[in-house]
Design goal:
six-stranded mixed β-sheet, Ubiquitin-like (UB roll), about 350 residues, Rossmann fold, about 45% helix, 14 helices
């Protein structure tokens, strides 16, 4: 999964990028920064403790920090579009904090207006792209029909991903063509400790009315905490009343946004979280690990991670009747621990 962090200049995008990647990636201003955000998972930790696994592998998110989109600087939009046309989803950061050191370019704090400004910029960019493709001398009729439909949605100042007149298949086609607004989007309201509850509530309602998922994050604080050792991180998160670090909350929201879920594997060698689409079958999950496992699939042994941890291992789970044998068409459930039987 690859997500792009987008927003207007000085909204705190890069600070959020640092918080997600643990301040381990060197960053450059006004450039595309890329890094992997590991998603801590208590289930993987618990399984690793049971099996005394030599290696722990969390799920990860490839994060792309895009240059800020300045409506008065077309070059910034061009640099942004270079990266935005290839990601799976966009995380739209909006500013909810004051700062004398880093004043808002427009001299005010208005998250809703900032969100609307970026939406407008993205819509204009996609309109230009549609017009360019439609002006081509040779264009397949099916593509022309789809581009005409997309243009009508954009003319109504709607993002393509929320266009009611477009089917899910058409949205996926437009996404593959590189249309930015065909990508699922969510908001992150970047706050400070003194941000008012009314501003947060007002923006949360705004996001809900727009049909978008949203998170509230103090990116500066979480960036500082992410630099600490795991034990210290937990203490500071508790001190500030933060139930889970930003990377975990963002991952959960992105999984909902993109229709993803996790399954787990565990043993002496490693404990690991894997990502699949909701509704994925056992054989599809096997293919995520290795194509040979999918090709030679025989059966999948399945047990819930909590049951497995509670009894203390595979043998104990089998003796307790907790392990099921499932066929290729078994639908993976969130938190399943799988062991694949296969022959190549």
């Amino acid at each position: 999964m690859e997500v792009g962090i987008v927003g207007l200049p000085l909204c705190g995008k890069t600070t959020l990028f640092k918080a997600l990647t643990g301040n381990k990636i060197p960053v450059k201003d006004k450039e595309i920064n890329m890094g992997a955000a590991l998603v801590p998972d208590e289930r993987v930790d618990a399984l690793a403790a049971v099996f005394k696994s030599k290696k722990v592998v969390y799920a990860s998110i490839n994060v792309v920090d895009m240059p800020g989109v300045d409506p008065d600087d077309r070059k910034s939009t061009s640099r942004f579009l270079e990266g935005a046309r290839s990601v799976d989803a966009l995380v739209h950061v909006v500013r909810g904090f004051e700062s004398d050191l880093v004043p808002h370019p427009m001299g005010r704090i208005n998250p809703k207006e900032d969100a609307e400004i970026l939406d407008t910029e993205l819509i204009f960019a996609d309109m230009e792209m549609a017009e360019k493709r439609l002006s081509a001398k040779k264009i397949p009729q099916e593509e022309k029909v789809l581009l005409d439909k997309a243009s009508k949605v954009l003319e109504q100042e709607q993002l393509l991903v929320y266009g009611d007149s477009l089917t899910e298949e058409e949205k996926e086609q437009l996404k593959k063509m590189g249309f930015v607004t065909a990508r699922p989007q969510m908001y992150v309201l970047n706050i400070e400790e003194s941000t008012s509850k009314s501003l947060i509530d007002d923006f949360t309602m705004f996001a809900h009315e727009k049909g978008r998922l949203s998170l509230v994050v103090n990116a500066e604080l979480e960036s500082e905490i992410s630099s600490l050792e795991p034990g210290e991180q937990k203490a500071f998160l508790e001190e500030y009343g933060i139930a889970e670090p930003a990377v975990v909350r963002l991952a959960k929201t992105l999984y909902d946004l993109l229709g993803l879920q996790s399954f787990l594997t565990a043993g002496e060698k490693e404990a690991r979280a894997w990502t699949v689409k909701k509704g994925a079958t056992a054989v599809e999950a096997a293919g995520v690990i290795h194509s040979d496992i999918a090709r030679g699939f025989i059966r999948a042994e399945v047990v819930n991670w909590q049951d497995l941890v509670k009894v203390g291992g595979w043998k104990e789970a089998q003796q307790a009747g907790l392990v099921r044998l499932e066929r290729k068409d078994y639908i993976i459930q969130e938190g399943d621990v799988l062991y694949f039987r296969f022959h190549v």
